[in-house]
Amino acid sequence: MNLNGDIIIIEDDADDRDVLVEVFDDVLNKYGYTNKVVLIDDSTKVIDYLKGTTSSPFLIISDINMPKLDGFALRELIFQDQELNDKCIPYVFLTTSGDNTEFMKKAYGLSIQGYFTKPNDYAEYEGLISDMVRYWKVAKIANRI
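Structure (tokenized):
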């Protein structure tokens, strides 16, 4: 993981992507972070992106409910790929599925590093993203560059 690496957001919903771009712009500017936000709207393209990029991403934030390849299946593919797994990229879910205990158990069974509900309030969204990014900026990761 690279502290200044890309933040990969996997989100199929255009409205949610727009909100995330705005929130991340505000948070990154507020704290002076230089991470680039990369939006991927089709989860089937994530593995190719991760294998094709020369940079080491900072964080992956994924929706769960997506067509073609849901967030669980995507996480499993990344987790089972030794090359990608060795990059130690934190993987968190950001979902509208909220307090779905079945989803949470399944998610943590896939060794994710966080499960968060998408807030409805902008200030709460900004606070959540701010906390998430700041946490990973100071967390100890085996492959941190």
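The chain has a mean pLDDT of 91. The CA atoms of residues 64 and 70 lie 6 Å apart.
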